[in-house]
Specification:
Blueprint: H1 20-27, H2 33-52, H3 57-75, H4 83-103, H5 111-130, H6 133-148
């Protein structure tokens, strides 16, 4: 008899939603102030570290992921007219990363780069006010998918 050519994979069950009705209803609501505050604190804290000159690649990645979510939300219709300014901010972050890789000193913004990223983060704050939980969750999943496919920038310091 021939043996099985496919090796067995470890069983990984999918997550179970205990209350699907509540889950669907919660996705149709805007994010609570507590959730919005937690999200904003994370990327604003990372941006503050980067502007002070003591930012880490993790801070850079936090700001980059936030801008990636903002780009996906723009593509979905939440401020589509701001897509060029988000693209400028993403380019600024890439230039900063490239300088860091080349010089190896610290992650520092130039004035125009900092202004572009600050404008993009302000746009993302406005998007959080105008979106539903479901929209943000779908945007985060899309960013994760694009990162896996290497369609977005991921830091490799």
């Amino acid at each position: 008899m021939a043996s099985n050519k496919k090796p067995k994979k470890k069983y990984r069950p999918k997550g179970v939603v205990l209350n699907p009705i509540e889950y669907v209803i919660s996705g149709m609501k805007p994010p609570t102030e507590d959730v919005k505050t937690k999200l904003k604190v994370a990327y604003h804290w990372a941006m503050a570290s980067l502007t002070k000159g003591n930012g880490t690649p993790d801070d850079w990645q936090e700001v980059t992921n936030t801008l990636n979510v903002a780009m996906v939300l723009c593509e979905k219709g939440f401020g589509r007219e701001y897509l060029p300014s988000l693209s400028n901010a993403a380019d600024a972050l890439v230039r900063m990363r490239d300088r860091f890789k080349q010089e190896g000193k610290s992650l520092l913004f130039r004035a125009d780069e900092m202004q572009a990223v600050n404008e993009a983060l302000a746009l993302h704050d406005a998007q959080l006010e105008a979106t539903l939980v479901k929209d943000v969750e779908l945007a985060v999943k899309e960013v994760e998918r694009r990162l896996r496919l290497k369609l977005f920038h991921k830091v490799t310091a």
